[in-house]
Amino acid sequence: xxxxxxxxxxxxxxxxxxQAVNAACRYLAPRDAGELAEALxxxxxxxxxxxxxxxxxxxxxxxxxDLVVDTSGLRDLSFDPATGVATAGPGVTIEQLWREALPHxxxxxxxxxxxxPTLAGCLAANVHGKNAFRAGPTGEHVESxxxxxASGETLRCSPTERPEIFHAAIGGFGALGAFTRVxxxxxxxxxxxxxxxxxxxRSLAELFDRFEERLPAADYLxxxxxxxxxxxxxxxxxxxxxxxxxxxxxxxxxxxxxxxxRQGLPGTIFGVPKGILWRFxxxxxxxxxxxxxxxAKYLAGYLQxxxxxxxxxxxAFAFLLDYVPDWRRAYGRAGFIQFQPFVPKETARETFRELxxxxxxxxxxxxLAVLKRHRPDPFLLTHGLDGWSLAMDFPAxxxxxxxxLCHRMSERVLDAGGRFYFAKDAVLRPxxxxxxxxxxxxxxxxxxxxxxxxxxxxxxxxxxxxxxxPPL
Amino acid sequence: MPTFxxxxxxxxxxxxxEALARLLAAEGCHVxxxxxxxxxxxxxxxxxxxxxxxxxxxxxxxxxxxxxPPLFERIVGALGGLDLLVYAAGVLHEPAEGEYxxxxxxxxxxxxLLGAMAWGNLAAARFEAARAGTLLGISSIAGERxxxxxxxxxxxxxAMTTYLEALRNRLSRYGVRVVTxxxxxxxxxxxRGKKGLFWLVSADEAxxxxxxxxxxxxxxxxxxxxxxLVALAIRSIPSFLFRRLNV
Lengths: 472, 247
Hints:
CATH superfamily of chain B: NAD(P)-binding Rossmann-like Domain
Distance between the termini of chain B: 38 Å
Largest sheet of chain A: 8 strands, antiparallel
Distance between the termini of chain A: 38 Å
Number of strands of chain A: 20
Number of helices of chain A: 15
Radius of gyration of chain A: 22 Å
Number of helices of chain B: 8
CATH topology of the largest domain in chain A: Alpha-Beta Plaits
Radius of gyration of chain B: 17 Å
Number of strands of chain B: 9
Largest sheet of chain B: 7 strands, parallel
CATH class of the largest domain in chain A: Alpha Beta
Shape of chain B: globular
Largest interface: A-B, 13 and 15 residues
Oligomer: heterodimer
Number of domains of chain A: 3
C-alpha cells in the first residue's frame, strides 16, 4: 500500500449484484491478514468509513461505501475430512469450498443460488439456501470465527464463546468488524447426485399446498413462480424437490459422482453457448417478453411426466444463477433489484397473492419470482422466521415508480408481520427496518455496535440508508 | 438537451473557463469556480453574483494532484450533486527558436493534461456510478498535429484529446457524455499579442459554442466549426511537407 492518504486511494466504480445501485468508492484489496489489519487501522486513523466486500453478490448497497476493503484475496483454506470442518480465510468462495470438500464426501450445508460468494459475505449476510426450512441459514453451521474489530483486536467467537457477538456479527452485514477466519461444518453426503422431482402448481394456492405436502420428506424444496400469470392462474409455477441419496442409492457410485469434474454446469443451453446467452435474453427484457418466457417455462413443465424424478448433480441443482454467465447484463444499463419479503406462515399466502396482484396492477410484474420456506434461527438481525419468502426480480429502468411500488409492498409486508433480508435490499427506509426487526432487537445490535465500533469505522451505504439515527 | 443545474468549472479565473462559468451561471446553474488565482476567482464570482447567479469559489492549483480528490468531494457536497464538469485550465508557453525548456514543458503537461486526468477521473467515476453526467474538456486544434512551433503544448492537447476520447468510449454505455471542444484562436490572455492569428473569436463566443457541444452531447467539435477545415488540411499534409512549414 502506498503512503498517500486513503482519501486518494484508487477509485473504483462498484455496484450491487443487481447493478441498479452503484457508487464511486475508494478501493483497497489487501493480500493478507496483515494488510487487512493495516488498512483498517489506517482508515480508522484517517477517519474514513470502511465497507467490507467479497464477491459483490449482495444485490443492493451492502458492499458499497466510502472506502471499500475487498477481502476476496484472503483465500487460505484447509479442510479436515475426519471432522468435516473447514477453516477458511474470509475470501474463500463457496466454489472453492465445495471443490475442496466434495471428493471427501462433503458438501456445504447451506449454499445460495450462486457459488461465487465468499464465506465472509455468506456470514455477514447469513445466507440461506433451498434447504432453509431444514438447515437454517449459514450461521447455524459455523463452529467459530475470528472478528477483527475497529480497535484492532481480534475476537474469537462461537456459539459458546462471546455468543452475543457470534449471533450478531453473523447477519450483521459487516457493521461490527471484519471476519478474518471462519470455521464451518459441512454436511456428509453419500453421492454427488441428488434425486430431483419437479412438481407443478396451477395457482398460488396449489403451489403452497404442494410445497407443504412435500416439506416433511424434502431435503431441498424451492418454487419458481410465473409472476406474469393472472386471474385463476395467479402464482402458478413449479416446485423442485431435491433429496440426498442414501448409501448404495447412487447408480454410478460415489467414487464417480463425488468427482469435481462430474459436477459441471452445461456448456450450452438450447444449443446456444452459455457465454453469449444473455444477449438472447435482452429482447425479452420487457413485460410482454417476460410473459412469453415465463409462459414457455411453465408449459415446458408439462413435458416432464408428473411424479417422475431424475438425478442431478449438486452443482446443477444448487447454482441456478451460474447457468447463464452475465445474465444480469440482459437488464441493460439500469440494472435490476430484488425485493424479498419474509412473511409468517399464517399470513404468507394472502400477502404474496396481494403483492403479485399489486405488481400486475401497476404494470410491473417481477421478471423472476422464487418461493422458499424458512424457519426461525438464533441470530439477532435474522431474516429467518417460521414462514415463507418470495424473491422477486424487477428491472430498475423506471426507478421512481419501482421504488414507490416496493415501498407499498413493504408496508403490506410489515402489516403482515414480515421481515426483509439486507442482501436483497435496495429500497428499505429506517422506519421499515425498525418495524421489521423491532426496537428491542435493533437496540441490542446498536449497543454492540457502540461497544465494538464506537467511532463508526464500519459503515456501508446500506448502513447509512437504513440505520435509524442514533440514539435509537 | 440537458440543462445543467450544478457544474464545476476548473480554470474559471480567465479565458474560456471564465466565460463558461458566467454563461452557465446566467442560465441558472450553480457553479463552482476552481482556479489557482484567488483574486481573479473572487472577481469572477462577484460578477456572477452581481448578475444574480450562484457561484462558489475554490482556490486550487491543478498541479496539486493529491488535493483534488478531497476538494472534489467538498465541492460536490456544496453543490448537492454534479451534472457537469468543465476542464478549461490550460497554460501555453511558446518556446523560442532553438529553446528546449523542460520546466515549461512540464508545467504545460501537468496543467493541460495531468490536471485534466486528475479531475476527469474523479468526475468520470462519479458519473459512471450515477449513470448520468457530462464532462466537457477544452482541448485545442493544436493537438491535431505535431507542429515544430510548440512540441509540448501540442503534445499535451493531443494527449488530452485522446484521453477524453477514451473516457467517452468508456462511459457512453452508461449514458455519460464526454465532450471535447477544440478551439482555434480565441482572444484570451493566452493568445494576446501573438502574431499571425486569424479567425479570432471572443472567449464568450467560444464558450457559447463549447457549451452548445456539451448540450447536444456532441463527441467532439471545433470552435468555431470552420476550424475543422484547417484540421483536415493540416492532417492531410504529408510529413515531408509539414516539416518545412513554419507553424
